[in-house]
Amino acid sequence: MVDDEPVLRESLRDWLYNAGYQVEAVADGGEALKAIEEQDFGVAIFDLKLPGEKNGIEVLGEASAHKAGLQGIIITAYPSWETAVESMKLGAVDYLSKPFSPEKLEELVEKALVPSEAKA
């Protein structure tokens, strides 16, 4: 999970951890890409607006290029059709507008982790 808001990042990390997921939470795209290169993750959650040169969609695109099976979810307080379409084109499996409930995010994570053949 990558989000620059510490309270949200840590709260969601704790929620997902308590739901039984192994979670790593980082504050920016550079940290996220480093973690993705070093470890195997089934799902990555990217905030759209991140500090630094790259936004969450760009980080998703770069991460997906290195890890073909990575499932990405974009979360944002600034939703738009343009960013939703762009994120889906770069491989996002879902796009979630803030505020959202932790239960909704957990549901999307669970859905993203289901093998492709089970979704059909």
Describe this protein's structure.
The chain is of the alpha/beta class and 120 residues long. It has a 3-stranded parallel sheet with strand order 1-2-3, with helices on both faces. The mean pLDDT is 92. The protein has helices spanning 6-18, 29-38, 56-66, 81-89, 102-113, 116-119, and strands at 43-47, 71-76, 92-97. It contains 6 helices and 3 strands, in the order H-H-E-H-E-H-E-H-H. The longest helix has 13 residues, at 6-18. Helix 2 (29-38) runs parallel beside helix 3. The radius of gyration is 13 Å and the shape is globular.
Our Rg estimate from Cα atoms comes to 13 Å
Placed side by side, the strands forming the largest sheet appear as 1-2-3
Question: Could you give a short account of the major beta sheet?
Answer: 3 strands, parallel
Low-confidence stretches: none
The N- to C-terminal Cα distance equals 27 Å
Helix content: 40-55%
CATH class: Alpha Beta
Q: Beta-strand percentage?
A: 5-15%
Mean pLDDT: 92
State the oligomer: single chain
Order of helices and strands: HHEHEHEHH
What number of domains? 1
SS-based structural class?
alpha/beta
